[in-house]
Design brief:
single chain, five-stranded antiparallel β-sheet, 5 strands, nucleotide-binding, transferase, serine/threonine-protein kinase, ATP binding
Length: 145
């Protein structure tokens, strides 16, 4: 377990998602992350970065998305920061997943997933930057204990 912060900068381009996935996989191997947690982190990052690119970067101007990871023996800290439009993804209530599909509102399931798999998740707007901070505990697989 390194305890070393790793960072990556992405452009507001959906093609960057492949690079992000490769970076996460490399980091997970370095940290001996269990496959389930890697899968969850991949989905969380994919959902939040995709939303940022599609809805937060509404002009053709270049934008940057910064992602950082830090893990210790108990907790993974994941931070996603961007210079897009101000938006708190956690301000909306979670969708009612007990309703039949045809009765549910469109959208919100990705953020619902983030809330479900991360132990902490919050949003702050600092100047012209959106920052989403998340923590996941208990990330080690049982055979690593």
């Amino acid at each position: 377990m390194g305890g070393e912060r790793r960072e990556i900068e992405l452009k507001n381009d959906l093609e960057e998602l492949e690079r992000l996935g490769n970076w996460l996989t490399e980091w997970a191997e370095h940290e001996s992350l269990n496959p389930k947690t890697l899968f969850q982190l991949n989905l969380v990052c994919d959902e939040l970065v995709t939303n940022t690119i599609l809805y937060g970067c509404t002009t053709d101007a270049a934008h940057t998305i910064w992602i950082s990871l830090l893990a210790d023996s108990e907790t993974i800290e994941l931070t996603i920061k961007d210079d897009g439009l101000a938006f708190d993804p956690f301000a909306r209530p979670s969708p009612d997943v007990t309703l039949p599909l045809e009765e549910r509102e469109i959208g919100g399931l990705g953020i619902h997933f983030v809330r479900e798999v991360m132990d902490e998740a919050f949003y702050v707007r600092e100047g012209s930057f959106n920052t989403i901070c998340m923590k996941k505990t208990g990330w080690k697989s049982p055979q690593e204990d």
